[in-house]
Structures are given as C-alpha cells and as structure tokens.
Write a structure and sequence with these properties.
five-stranded mixed beta sheet, 1 helix, globular, about 20% strand, alpha+beta
C-alpha cells in the first residue's frame, strides 16, 4: 500500500503488516445502520477461523448488547466483503472465502434500523 505523505522524504515503517500479527489477520466487522457502534470493530484472528465461529463468537460478543441484535434473522442478513456482495459459508475458513488481512466485512440486517429507527 502506498503512503501519501505531506513531505516527499517520508520513510515510516508500516507496523500493521500481517507479519506483525503472529499468524493472525486483522478483520474489520461493521453493522450497517447501527451507529451505536461508530465504526467497524477490528478483530485479530487466525485465517483458518470458520465464518460460523466469527459470527457466533466474535460478532455476537461485540454487538449483542445492541437491542436489535436478538432480533436478527441470520437467514436474511446481506453481507459485503470489501464492498462486494458476499455469501459466507459458515463451515469454510475465512481464508478459503477470500477474507485476508485488513478485510472489511459488513452486515446489513433488513428491517432493523437501529434504536427506534434512528440508525443508532
């Protein structure tokens, strides 16, 4: 990834390289129209983590305090991987599904628009 710097002689070292995460990848998870969480949440996890584990443990652990979470119909969730439509396989690993270091996965939950429809 190129660095855009104010000065042409910038020589900083990127510290968020995958090599610095001890075999893990950083994956960002965002829940659209639920801005009680102001930005996607970052998780460092092994690339052989299954999507089912990501959904059941990481996503649930991060977002379950939101009042809409218990009402999610997981069969109706739309997923995006790096801005493109994505149909995850719960049994397959993240790596096998094209999720890599610094990928962003967004979920959209039809009919759930945040607290009182406020997108929060």
């Amino acid at each position: 990834m190129a660095v855009a710097a104010i000065t042409p002689d910038y020589t900083g070292e990127r510290l968020d390289r995958v090599e610095n995460f001890h075999g893990n990848i950083v994956v960002y998870i965002g829940w659209d129209r639920h801005l009680m969480f102001c930005s996607p949440i970052a998780f460092a996890m092994p690339p052989d983590t299954t999507f089912g584990k990501l959904q059941d443990e990481m996503i649930a652990g991060a977002y379950s305090q939101h009042p809409d979470f218990a009402r999610i119909d997981w069969g109706q969730v739309s997923w995006l991987l790096n801005g493109e439509p994505f149909t995850p396989d719960r049994e397959a690993t993240l790596e096998a599904q094209g999720v890599d270091h610094k990928s962003i996965i967004r979920m959209q939950t039809p009919g759930l628009e945040g607290i009182g429809g406020s997108h929060s």
